[in-house]
Amino acid sequence: MTTMLAETSAQTVSMEAVTKTYGDVRALDGITWTFPRGGFTAVMGPSGSGKSTFLHCASGLDRPSSGTVRIGGVDIGRLSEAKRTRLRRERIGFVFQSFNLVPSMDVEQNILLPLQLGGMKPDRAWLDEVVRRVGLADRVRHRPAELSGGQQQRVALARALVTRPDVVFADEPTGALDPRTAREVMALLREVVDMTGQTLVLVTHDPAAAAWADSVLFLSRGRIVDELAAPSPAAIANRWESL
Ligand SMILES: Nc1ncnc2c1ncn2[C@@H]1O[C@H](COP(=O)(O)OP(=O)(O)OP(=O)(O)O)[C@@H](O)[C@H]1O
């Protein structure tokens, strides 16, 4: 087996005293956190605890109301919207519950889309490596509609990895999959972290999915209230109950 640690980014995302308010609502209330490089972190919390807001701010989709978010060492609060978009495209990968593939494009075209949008040149060797790693080498000319849900999510993962991002954010990536396919996708995410040193952040409601992570952050009312390292599904469910 090959490892590609040398090819991963030196930077991750760090947040310092981050708040986000919507009118009177304090959706994030003083978040300070740096995602460990090469680590797999799950973020959990009850409905309304601020998970989506956390994901949006940490990934540069949105700007905090106060505090600092650094992506690859760059303070996103100081960037124009256009520059933040560019930084996000180059430094962050996304995987969503709904896959978000372009139906008219084949697998390879979908995977290459972030490079195309950013005017970046594909690295053929890395593309082949990513496609092989997610198990799609014999599917590159298929369209999304010709693939199972699990395969479509693998395409989305390959698309997230193709730019060699600092951090991949996965938002309920198994939410649309049956339990067996969900386990396969989680096992693949774990393998990608272990084999490539990719930093990964998973936002999920599902203790079984979160248990694949190195550690779980628990959000409540916009704050990080706990971290569980090397968590079992039972320990996660237990902590969840008391939030
Ligand atoms: N655009 C917005 N405008 C106003 N209030 C918002 C907005 N986005 C989020 N909020 C509020 O901020 C708080 C945190 O919401 P957020 O969506 O981050 O929580 P969540 O943990 O992701 O919830 P869920 O699990 O239900 O998706 C909630 O009180 C929510 O109503």
From TrEMBL:
Gene3D superfamilies hit by this protein: P-loop containing nucleotide triphosphate hydrolases
Record domain ABC transporter: where: 13-241
UniProt keyword annotation of Transport present: yes
One term of GO molecular function: ATP binding
Keywords: ATP-binding, Nucleotide-binding, Transport
Database matches in Pfam families: ABC_tran (PF00005)
Identification of the protein by name: ABC transporter ATP-binding protein
Species annotation: Actinomadura fibrosa
